[in-house]
Amino acid sequence: MRAIRQVHWGRIVVAGFLSEVSIFVIFLLLLVGATLAGFPEIARPMSTLDYIDAMLSSFVMVFLFTLWVGKRLESGFILHGALVGVVGILLFSILWVTTTGGSLASQPPLYIVAHVLKVLGGITGGLVTERRRRRVLRRAAIPPPGQEGWMRH
Questions:
Q1: Rounded to 5 degrees, what angle do the CA atoms 8, 13, 17 make?
Q2: H/E element holding 121?
Q3: What is the pLDDT of residues 76-132, one digit of tens each?
Q4: Which residue from 33, 57, 53 is spatially nearest to 45, judged by alpha carbons?
């Protein structure tokens, strides 16, 4: 029960929401760019470009927002990252069901891959944040050269 209280749910939900918004913004920018270039069909929903964008953006954006969440953590980096990805999946799934009228099972297989990549992006962001934190703590514990006994007084 104690571990659940240490989960920063507010930051997780905000990060999951912002990662999903950023994924949609990137897709819309690609759609506008393709339309302005005279090729709107390459960026329509469920096109090859959409699938590539969904998979890459899902991993990268959840990774980046997990780094943000991890700035204030002392532990549970990987858990927080995975939860950011899960929140992103839940938000997209709610949007999918409400806008398409279809079930979750009606999502294209590559969107399912993108969902898995959200969780993997969060886990990877958690691992990176944890390693950064360990490095900072190690540096803080090592006294400057020539001052090995400076804290013993």
A1: 150
A2: helix 109-141
A3: 999 999 999 999 999 999 999 998 887 878 889 999 999 999 999 999 999 999 999
A4: 53
CB 85 within 8 Å of CB 123: yes
CB atoms within 10 A of CB 66: 32
Rounded to an integer, what is the distance from CA 4 to the centroid of its chain?
A: 20
The tens digit of pLDDT for each residue in 12-49 reads 999 999 999 999 999 999 999 999 999 888 878 888 88
H helices present in 37-108, as ranges = 48-70, 77-100
Amino acid occupying residue 27: F
How far apart CA 45 and CA 117 sit, in angstroms, is 19
Question: Position 116: which residue type?
Answer: V
Q: Among candidates 63, 56, 54, which has minimal Cα distance to 111?
A: 54
Determine the Cα–Cα distance for residues 143 and 147; give it in Å rounded to an integer: 6
Collapsing DSSP to helix, strand or coil, 108 comes out as coil
Please state the pTM of the whole predicted model: 0.85
